[in-house]
Amino acid sequence: GAGVSQSPSNKVTEKGKDVELRCDPISGHTALYWYRQSLGQGLEFLIYFQGNSAPDKSGLPSDRFSAERTGGSVSTLTIQRTQQEDSAVYLCASSLLAGDLYEQYFGPGTRLTVT
Amino acid sequence: KQEVTQIPAALSVPEGENLVLNCSFTDSAIYNLQWFRQDPGKGLTSLLLIQSSQREQTSGRLNASLDKSSGRSTLYIAASQPGDSATYLCAVLYSGGGADGLTFGKGTHLIIQP
How many CB pairs below 8 A link A and B? Predict the structure, then answer.
């Protein structure tokens, strides 16, 4: 079946603009995760959803970052007033449920470049 | 705070050799540990998941072990092939409260020479 899909695959934006990144999880997966991969920081966890709710938003780097998930499926990660340090690959993952039994499956990522 | 370390950072071996990649984590309060591979410019591919109650998992030429008490995991690759060349990432799902995502190591960049 189809894996996790993300769009766009690449995004170049000017500093100060807002961007929206989209993640479409594997059908039937209730848990969805956002991560960021940058050269200096490696892979870091941002936020996760169980259904439509995000229990803990403390992993988001700043209040310019927000995420939502509607209908228990597609999620969007929005970055307002982008800064150059936001340049990274943003990865989305999903799992059947949250918890120790379930593997996370990753999408191909969105490469964001802020100029 | 949970920290994950992978050694070595890079490894280059001739085709056919068996090899071991190491992962250590600072806090043994984990739900599970997952090994991934990442090819250049691509997302992550899950290789193996070991639950905290398990000691090892096997898939084909790959075997991963977990010693939770000592905070260590190894990924053993048998009879390496050039197609195994990739970056291998270890990640733990921490059970000690706080964030609910995986904590990753920085990876081992593996090159298998034909």
Answer: 61
Higher-confidence position of A51 and B33: B33
Pick B99's closest partner by Cβ from A42, A58, A104: A58
Q: How far is A69 from chain B (nearest CA, A)?
A: 17
Residue B12's CB is within 10 A of a number of other CB atoms, namely 11
- Give the model's pLDDT for residue B97: 65
A62: exposed, middle or buried (Cβ count in 10 Å: 0-12, 13-18, 19+): exposed
What is the Cα–Cα distance from B28 to B31, expressed in whole angstroms? 9
Q: Which residues on A lie below 8 Å from B43 (Cβ)? A: 4, 91, 106-109
Kindly state the DSSP code that residue A98 receives in the 8-state scheme.
S
Write out pLDDT tens, residues B82-94: 999 999 999 999 8
